[in-house]
């Protein structure tokens, strides 16, 4: 009997969990994953926040809840973290590192090793490479505390023992995707740059089935 292409895709489609699925980039990740035939589970705070994520299995709850995470991760092949948090000029931010700590423990317990996590330009050694407006105004006035927590988040991932990839997009926009994506690790002459959320979603999903960037931290941009 001949197997159709769709049946073959379905048979080998990865089973993924997406955190941050109701965010602007997370929605693109879920939509594109479903269009590729992936088996997608999403962890969301409430079903009311996910009316457009049809086709994905919903797990309702808090991404900082380790017990819930273990249930959501069980049987998955990989986890994508697109967790974000609003700008916080004055208040300390801990949600990203707290959720990531719970995620790492849950993945270790459930023996799921593949993690692809999005942080952003400004984290780690990409600090100071966002261009004049971002580096001199937006980052210090609005995002410094967020990025302090992103740095803690990245450290937890790097020390997790998992098969991780940390993706740092340049400045995100909502333009149509489809442009050539540049992947950078040497940022010596790089300042600024932008990339569509759609292209970030495509790159992140490619990492679920590829190992070129395992244990590496690419900055992606147009």
Q: What this model shows, in words?
A:
The protein is of the alpha/beta class and 222 residues long. The protein has helices spanning 5-12, 24-35, 66-73, 95-110, 132-158, 197-209, and strands at residues 15-19, 39-44, 57-60, 78-81, 114-118, 163-169, 171-173, 182-184, 194-196, 219-221. The protein has a single domain (5-221), classed as 3-Layer(aba) Sandwich (Rossmann fold). The chain is built from six helices and ten strands; from the N terminus they run H-E-H-E-E-H-E-H-E-H-E-E-E-E-H-E. The longest helix is centred in the middle third of the chain and has 27 residues, at 132-158. It is globular, with a radius of gyration of 17 Å.
Percent strand equals: 15-25%
Shape: globular
Largest sheet: 8 strands, mixed
- Structural class of the helices, strands and pairings? alpha/beta
Can you tell me the residue ranges where pLDDT is under 50 for at least 5 consecutive residues?
Answer: 1-10
Q: Tell me roughly what share of residues is in helical segments.
A: 25-40%
Number of strands: 10
Number of helices: 6
Q: In the CATH hierarchy, what is the architecture at level 2?
A: 3-Layer(aba) Sandwich
Question: Key features?
Answer:
about 220 residues; alpha/beta; Rossmann fold; 8-stranded mixed β-sheet; 6 helices; about 40% helix; globular
Quick recap of the structure?
The chain is an alpha/beta fold and 222 residues long. The chain is built from six helices and ten strands; from the N terminus they run H-E-H-E-E-H-E-H-E-H-E-E-E-E-H-E.
